Task: structure prediction
Amino acid sequence: MLAPGFADPVHDAQATFRAVMDALARPGLPRPLTPGLTPPAPLTPELAAVALTLADADTPVWLDAGLAASPAVAAYLRFHTGAPLTEDPAAAAFALISDPARCPPLNAFAPGTPAYPDTSTTLVLALDAITAGEGLCLTGPGIRGTTRVALAPLPEGFVAQLAGNRADFPLGVDLILTAPGRVAGLPRSTAVTEG
Amino acid sequence: MTPNPAGPEPGPEIVARQAVMALCADASRTELEAALTRLDVPAAEDLRPPETGLVMATGRIGGDGRPFHVGEVSVTRAAIRLADGGTGFAYHLGRDRTKARLAAILDALWQDPAQRAHVEAALADAADRAEADRRKAARQTAATRVEFLTVARGED
Result:
């Protein structure tokens, strides 16, 4: 059964866009995000809000194994965004990941090209918790000094993967991290080290 | 082989649904409202609030010439879900969001085989009126017809 999208498409999408933009401008600082959506499981309301706001007919979307197993999720995204779904992570503009612990390595996704680094994949992860002030140590543009953020759950060797992602700057993928009620950004320009 | 732009041949159910939706597009808003008051309508919720946009209309001279862009027309679309889970969709020329939403509700009701006959009965008045309008327009057009005739001279 198809679920409804944003009640007020223009203003709800603008509010979500604003939250995501602020989150990417201040990496590691969680922003509130209360989309009021009831998408089909395992798509979380925050993942759905980001997808409905950013995806359209020009942005292929890749779904992780959990999301791809649900035809209701595919029907929901196709109806509300018109985005084509792809099975090749390197061809995707957006990757929706409902199970971050089993996220493929970051170098499986498109890093962009030297002439067009913006053609990279943006990963949207549904985490269980984002806690500011503890855990990983972040430095880079948009951060005064250092900031700390704890993310759970994460795949094996995530910090090493992020270091590899940053080594090819300006190529690399950007991450939008969501947790119930909040969103945080981890763009490719941010250097991440273990506590 | 060139692909068929209209896709595969639609089945009889799709043809019937297209006919009902064409009738809804022909009907006025008051006719759709009248039809819905005659039906047992469960609560409907918007899947996507009705919205208006522009669509490029394509024409062909004489119906079979080369396709060309006539211009943009405003189109309103609506998508609703009934309380029992049925979904209905409507695309209408013009900017009447209420009318597009009413047509989407009728579409959702029509897809329920138990309701199909009721929906068609409720729309019968609008169908008669649309058919009468079409006949009248055809009659008025026919009155302007000019008969050209070639007189055979029988020379050979």
